[in-house]
Write a structure and sequence with these properties.
Rossmann fold; 7-stranded parallel sheet; N-acetyl-alpha-D-glucosaminyl L-malate synthase BshA; alpha/beta; Glyco_trans_4-like_N; glycosyltransferase activity; 15 helices; binds ligand GMT; 6-stranded parallel sheet
Length: 376
């Protein structure tokens, strides 16, 4: 099948999922065309089955805001016509589903039918999409997609709660390539470069937006390090990084905390981590938690959104109410202080991740695409 994928090309979860999906589809024989404003960060392999088409928005003095949707839909029309694309899969409703709908309409004028699948990822529904500025357009584009998927049951419920949706929403959860991490090319995590042998390594990875509650991450760690030797790895970039850095200074734990910025070495970092913290305000799925779990890293998270579907309380880690810093710290300590317990939780974290193996989930998308083609 020839599939066009539209996504954000950045480090965010939706872009990562879209890219990994495209790569997996190409390995299964499909021809995948990524259409976005920059080459997606994880799109390292270019093969005959993978193409990238950059959307350019030329500057013009009259434009106060660049009309990205216009440029995207025009680009899509050209790509569909030039490469015989059979199906469009847009990730993140804003503005991709809206641009996708315009693409469909323009092509219909030329008797070209293009089924569109929209995957909702989270903040396009729970934060941004819900804003009155966007809500009518988001509702419209969800209802005019041929098929709609959400990455968790919780996000499906939120979508039905916040929007007047007339379309059926199918849940296709995010996924991870379990085998890839079991056959890592590096066997030595080089843990000794980061911490002493008797120190525990605690990690947080995010885009450092408010919704991630990075100050809670620091405060949880502050409690943990009172009880044991530990280090905190803060991975990612975003508006709250400075807030976290200031808090680290105020708490006088600068020698215990490392801000690593955006990294392409997530696998290495998770390889030497003992525990992962994700105390988010909301999280439709929590791909970062799943990535930690597949590296056998137990997760302490909030019990919000789709997180309870991924992180199994008392098995792969522990869940607490949003903002329950002391509860999260106590659970973290209970896992870390007992080597046998830590080992058990590590094994169980991997076991819980296996449910989301790429080989279980990608066929669900292929099945959906087949149905979309038949319906077109
Ligand atoms: O919040 C982020 O990390 C970015 C955002 C995105 O769209 O890139 O992530 C959302 O989509 C991810 C992939 O489906 C989910 O794993 C994240 O939970 C979700 N973020 C939120 O709901 C806050």
């Amino acid at each position: 099948m020839k599939i066009a994928i539209v996504c954000y090309p950045t480090f965010g979860g939706s872009g990562v999922v879209a890219t990994e999906l495209g790569l997996a589809l190409s390995r299964r024989g499909h021809e995948v065309h990524f259409v976005t404003y920059k080459q997606p960060v994880r799109l390292e392999t270019i093969s005959s089955h993978i193409r990238f088409h950059e959307v350019n928005v030329p500057e013009y003095p009259l434009f106060h805001y660049q009309p990205y949707e216009l440029a995207l839909s025009s680009k899509l029309v050209n790509v569909v016509k030039n490469y015989g694309i059979e199906l469009l899969h847009v990730h993140y409703a804003i503005p991709h589903a809206y641009a996708g709908y315009m693409t469909k309409k323009m092509l219909a004028e030329e008797q070209i039918s293009l089924p569109m699948v929209t995957t909702l990822h989270g903040t396009d529904i729970t934060l941004v999409g819900n804003h009155p500025f966007y809500k009518p357009a988001v509702t419209f584009s969800i209802n005019h997609s041929d098929f709609v998927t959400s990455v968790s049951e919780s996000l499906k419920e939120d979508t039905l709660k916040f929007f007047e949706v007339t379309k059926n929403i199918e849940v296709i959860p995010n996924f991870i390539d379990v085998a890839k991490f079991q056959h890592q090319s590096f066997t030595d995590c080089q843990r000794e470069l980061m911490a002493d042998e008797d120190e525990k390594i605690i990690t947080h990875i995010s885009n450092f937006r408010k919704v991630k509650r990075v100050d809670d991450v620091v405060n949880i760690f502050f409690e943990i390090q009172k009880k044991m030797k530990a280090r905190l790895m803060m991975v990612g970039e975003g508006p709250q990084r400075e807030v976290a850095e200031n808090l680290v200074r105020e708490l006088n734990i600068r020698d215990r905390v490392l801000f690593l910025g955006q990294s392409n070495e997530i696998d290495k970092i998770l390889c030497f981590s003992d525990l992962f913290l994700l105390p988010s305000e909301t999280e439709s799925f929590g791909l970062a938690a799943l990535e930690a779990m597949v590296h056998s890293v137990p997760v302490i998270s909030s019990n919000t959104g789709g997180l309870p579907e991924v992180n199994i309380d008392g098995f792969s880690g522990f869940l607490h109410e949003v903002g329950d810093v002391q509860g999260m710290a106590n659970s973290a300590i209970s896992i870390l202080e007992d080597p046998k317990r830590l080992e058990k939780f590590k094994k169980q974290a991997l076991q819980a991740a296996e449910k989301y193996d790429i080989n279980q989930i990608v066929p669900m998308y292929e099945d959906l695409y087949q149905r979309a083609l038949v319906n077109a």
